[in-house]
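quick one: manganese (II) ion bound model?
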Amino acid sequence: MRLTYLGHSCFLVRTPTATLLLDPFLTGNPLASARAEDVTCDYILCSHGHDDHIGDAAAISKRCGAPIICNFEIGEYLNAQGLKTAALNPGGGADFPFGRVKFTIAHHSSSLVEAGGKITYLGTPCGMLIHAGGKSLYHAGDTALFLDMQLIGRGGLDAALIPIGDRFTMGPEDALEALDLLRPKVAVPMHYNTWDPIRQDAPKFAAAAAARGHSVNSLKPGASLEI
Ligand code: NI
Ligand code: MN
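yep, here:
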């Protein structure tokens, strides 16, 4: 499984049989390493309804014919636009041709703010657990630290993608505790440095994690990691 970081919480994941795009947010993302128009994928996975996680989902799904794997409410919202979706909710999983996706809990919110400040609520926020090609990958979505992360890590994780930005999600201190609970072989920090309010020192976080026995790879946008 090959992970390419596209900036913020967006990753392109190449499994042996399919390319998955996680939390597509490239248009308007100052750190994006690719343009939405240039990304191709077979499936799109969205953790929750905030624009910095589903912003480019509809356009890329339409262009590539890629179904969007998301929670039930986002699924209904996108179905109404004529998009192909596959809905899951926390604790539920489903088999796809490339492998299995299970949604987990996440502590956050999941609304879409539309023109004029109208808020459409798009279900519950989720984390995403992907098993493909014999590898396991956890994308935490946007979340606070929660003790049940020890359940998510209990089957062994080849990689965990965890937010460290603070303010809207865990910050670095809580993310270190998340690693103690998840115990992935490698962790990649995400959801930081995109804007000033979530600026963080990723090398400092990686060093603190190493001191606790965790391996952190602070991928720069555009960089890849084979797990
Ligand atoms: Ni969010
Ligand atoms: Mn976010």
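The CA atoms of residues 175 and 185 lie 15 Å apart.
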